[in-house]
Amino acid sequence: MVNGQQVTSDVAPQIVNNRVMVPLSVVAKALDANVGWNQKNQTVTINDKAIPSQEDIWKQDLDFIGSGWASLRNIIGTFMIGFDERDDALIKSVTVEGYDKLPIGGMYPAIIDYKIVDAQELTHSLKVRVKVILYEDILKGEMWDFVITNRKIETMKKVDFFNVDEYTVFPGLSYSK
User: Fold this and answer.
1) Where in the chain does DSSP place strands (E)?
2) Which residues contact 170 (CB under 8 A, 6 or more apart)?
3) If you compute the radius of gyration of the chain from its CA atoms, what whole number of angstroms results?
4) What are the extents of the domains in the chain?
5) Which site from 49, 99, 128, 129 is most exposed, i.e. has the minimal number of CB atoms within 10 Å?
C-alpha cells in the first residue's frame, strides 16, 4: 500500500534482516517519482517529478542567520508581489532609487510560483537566482538574477528561459500547456 492505494509488483516483497524489501521502482511509480541508477557509483536516486533536482549554481556555502535569510526571502517576495500586481510603489519599496525596470502597463504574465534556487556573496552585495514559473498564453519558466545591496534590489536580470509542460504548485493545483 502506498498512500492508501494497493500497489502490485512482478517481484514479491521479501523480509531480509527484519526489513521488508520491495523494488524501489514500484514505490517510486506509485508516488509519481522518477528513479535513476548511476552505474559508476552504484547509487539510486529518486526525484519527485514535480520538484526537479536542484543544482548548486555558484557552489558557495552561505552563512545566514535565520533573520537574514527571512529578510532576503521577503525582499524577493515583495518584488514578486509588486511585479505580479503591477504595483510600482511596492517594487520601489525594495529597489534602489533610480531602479527603472518597473512594469508600466500592458500584458504581463502572471507569476504562478517562484523559488529561490541559489545565492552568491559578492564583495558588498548578494546575487540571488530565482526560478520563476509564469503563465500568460502559455506556461513557461525563467531564471531571474537579483543583485541585492543593503536590503535593496539593485538589478534584476532574466538569465535563462525554459519550457514547462506542466507544473504542480501543490496537489490539486496544476497547470499545463
Assistant:
1) 14-16, 19-21, 33-38, 43-48, 110-121, 126-135, 139-149, 152-163, 166-170, 173-176
2) none
3) 21
4) 14-48, 66-176
5) 49
Q: What separation in angstroms does the CA of 116 have from each of 46, 52, 84, 94, 126?
A: 22, 13, 17, 17, 13
Scanning the chain, the segments in alpha helix (DSSP H) are 24-30, 66-85, 88-92
Instruction: Return all residues near 22 (Cβ < 8 A) that are at least 6 apart.
Output: 9, 11, 13
Which fold would CATH assign to domain 66-176?
A: Nuclear Transport Factor 2; Chain: A, (3.10.450)
CA 13 to chain centre: 35
Q: What percent of the chain has pLDDT over 70?
A: 85
- The average pLDDT across 32-39 equals 75
Q: pLDDT tens digits for 104-139? A: 555 678 999 999 988 888 889 999 999 999 998 899
- What DSSP state is assigned to residue 95? B
Cell numbers for 57: 549554481
Q: What is the pTM of this model?
A: 0.66
Task: Give the three-state DSSP class for 62.
Answer: coil
